[in-house]
Amino acid sequence: MKPVIGITAHTEQRTQRKYCLVSQNYIYSVCAAGGVPFVLPLVNDNSTVVEYLSFLDGLILTGGEDVCPLTYGENPIKEVEFFSLARDQFEMILFKEALRRNLPVLGICRGLHIMNTALGGTLYQDIFRQVESSLGHLPKLLPVDNLYHSIQIDEESRLAKIFSSNEIQVNSYHHQAAKKVAEAFKVTAKSSDNIVEAIEHREKDFVLAVQWHPEDLTVSHPIFLMLFNALIDASTRKKQCC
Ligand code: MN
Q1: How far is the CA of 211 from the centre of ligand 1 (A)?
Q2: 3-state DSSP assignment of residue 194
Q3: What pLDDT digit, counting tens, does each position of 191-208 carry?
Q4: Which of 131, 185, 202, 213 lies at 20 to 30 Å from 19 by C-alpha?
Q5: Mean pLDDT of 23-33
Q6: Which residues of 156-189 are buried (b: 16+ CB within 10 A; e: fewer)?
Q7: Gap from CA of 176 to ligand 1 centroid (Å)
Q8: Residue 169 C-alpha to ligand 1 middle, in angstroms?
Q9: Three-class DSSP category at 153
Q10: Neighbours of ion ligand 1 (CB under 5 A)
Q11: How far apart are CA 186 and CA 73, in angstroms?
Q12: Measured in angstroms, how far is the CA atom of residue 173 from the centroid of ligand 1?
């Protein structure tokens, strides 16, 4: 039996209705790595969140809108134009409950922000405004399957083992980033302008998050499938042990 990987969806208002959406690239990447993708619609009752986790072997917290600054005690600056408090709360509860159950978790972009904020960290609301000498992290005209900037990876990290390297090139589609990193995490990759590009939980078997979008690279640069392979391996171990 393959492990079942939950993938958080977002809700999008179109002209007449709201839709539950997720990028097909997460689904493709989970399938290509040997997992069963299971899209998790946003719900606002905690009991359904617990039900979700009863049949999942692993979890992906996906990219998307900004985390509301109020969740880490700040009012928004003008660069924060949209957020969903409902999604923030849903994903934070989902993440904390997944942690409690020792489920493998992969956070992607916003997923990193949610994981850090859920455990007491804070964010730069806009790195271009708030981080001096920040370089490019949001090339709006570049297709998402293109590499954009390099990152340095901590040699002792799980990420370095996954990629067998301490420097790789990644895509980049974010204007926010981790500021104060929660105590439970260590920073395991940074860009040359000192932006946090990956975090890993200090104690859990596989709870890590990346600031880039590996799901958009698994076809054009298959090395990024290694990250999904690692999630599926950890989820298979979890499935077999309990
Ligand atoms: Mn970046």
Answers
A1: 6
A2: coil
A3: 999 999 999 999 999 999
A4: 213
A5: 98
A6: ebbbbebbeeeebebbbbbbbbbbebbebbeebb
A7: 9
A8: 10
A9: strand
A10: 137, 172
A11: 22
A12: 7
Q: What digits encode the pLDDT tens for the residues 119-159?
A: 999 999 999 999 999 999 999 999 999 999 999 999 999 99
For 221, the token pair is 């640069």
CB half-sphere exposure, 200, CA atoms < 13 A: 20
Per-residue confidence (pLDDT) for residue 242, from 0 to 100: 67
b (16+ CB within 10 A) / e for 75-109: eeeeebeebbeebbbbbbbbbebbbeeebbbbbbb
Nearest Cα residue to 3 out of 41, 34, 32, 40: 34
**What are the φ/ψ torsions at residue 181 (nearest 5 degrees)?**
-90, 130
- Which candidate in 109, 149, 200, 201 is catalytic? 109
| N- to C-terminal Cα separation, the chain | 14
* Mean pLDDT estimate for the chain: 96
Give pLDDT, residue 46.
87
pTM score of the predicted model:
0.97
pLDDT of residue 200: 98
Which of these, 145, 149, 125, lies nearest to 137 by C-alpha position?
A: 149
* Average pLDDT of the residues in 64-82: 96
39 Cα: distance to centroid of ligand 1 (angstroms): 26
